Amino acid sequence: MASRRRMLLKVIILGDSGVGKTSLMNQYVNRKFSNQYKATIGADFLTKEVQFEDRLFTLQIWDTAGQERFQSLGVAFYHGADCCVLVYDVNVMKSFDNLNNWREEFLIQASPSDPENFPFVVLGNKTDVDGGNSRVVR
């Protein structure tokens, strides 16, 4: 059997406060969900190993606070990121409208070598709230 090559990938999750960044990360990594809301202070990260073909990837997923007062921490947390996940709440139009601000702030603070081709993923969250009746972003 061929030896597996391991690679570390740093993923940053950004979006307004309360859009569900922590819940998404916990669901993806631990398969656990909690209805209780607890704001993230600063940043936290979890790791998950994923195999693709003959390679093993360790995803270091950074969950950041959505509050403006923590954005100054960005340079340290964003540095060396390989991907950025932008999250919005489908029931709050402003959280969707703010995605471009999050993207721009990330590019300024992370200073990726090729900003035009840096990988971003956009996730609409909370589609299950109110049976979908509160949804404003379609």
Number of helices: 4
User: What's the number of extended β-strand segments?
Assistant: 5
How are helices and strands ordered from N to C? EHEEHEHHE
Low-confidence stretches: none
> From the 3D coordinates, which CATH architecture would you assign?
3-Layer(aba) Sandwich
Beta-strand fraction estimate: 25-35%
For the report, how would you describe the main beta sheet? 5 strands, mixed
Within the largest sheet, what's the order of strands?
2-3-1-4-5
Shape call: globular
Q: Would you tell me the overall average pLDDT?
A: 85
Overall radius of gyration: 16 Å
Structural class: alpha/beta
Helix content: 10-25%
- CATH superfamily grouping: P-loop containing nucleotide triphosphate hydrolases
Number of domains: 1
* CATH level 1 class label: Alpha Beta
Write a structural description.
The N and C termini lie far apart (47 Å). The protein is globular. A hairpin with a 2-residue loop joins β2 and β3. It has a 5-stranded mixed sheet with strand order 2-3-1-4-5. It has a single domain, classed as Rossmann fold, CATH 3.40.50. The protein contains 4 helices and 5 strands, in the order βαββαβααβ. It is of the alpha/beta class.
